[in-house]
Specification:
By secondary structure, this protein is an all-alpha fold. It has one domain: Orthogonal Bundle (Arc Repressor Mutant, subunit A), CATH 1.10.10.10. The protein is about 75% helix and about 0% strand. The protein has 7 helices and no strands. It is globular and about 60 Å long. The termini are far apart.
Length: about 160
Amino acid sequence: MVSMAENFKEFYAAHKARLFGYLMRLTGDYENSRDIMQESFTRYFERYTGNPFSPALLFTIARNAVLDDLRRKRPQDPLDDQLCSPGATDQERHMLVRDEYRRVLTAMQQLSIDERDLLCLVISGGLAYREIARMTGLSVANLKVKIHRIRLKLRELLKMGEMK
C-alpha cells in the first residue's frame, strides 16, 4: 500500500514545474518564485493531505501566497540573469531566447497583478477554465473574455517594446 508521503511526492513531482512556471510568470522573480512554490507545497501538505490531491487547490494556495507577498513588499527588479537555464548549445541562440524571455516578462510586469494572475493561471496552471473561474469567482464566459483582452493588451505591449 502506498503511503500518504509517497502520494504527496508523486503529486509534487507532477506539479512542481507547472507551479514554478506560473509563479515565475506572475512574479518575474526566480528566487521569490522558488520560495513561494516551497511555501505552497508545505501549506498544502500541512493542511490538506486528508483530502484527495487537487492541482486547483495548490494553485489557489500559491496565488494567495503571491498576493500576501505583494502586500508585504514592493516588487523588485524582475529581470535577473538566473531566469534562463543554459539549455541551448548555441550561445547566440541562448542570448536570443533570454532576450525574448526578458522582453515578455517586462511586458507582463506592465499588466495589472489581476491580469497577470489570470494569464499565468491559463498559461502555466494546466487548469481548465472552469477550475480557474471557480478559483477567481468569475463566470467561465467572463474569464474567457478577460483572457482574450489580456492577450491583446500583452500583444500591444510587446509591439510597443519592439518600436523602442
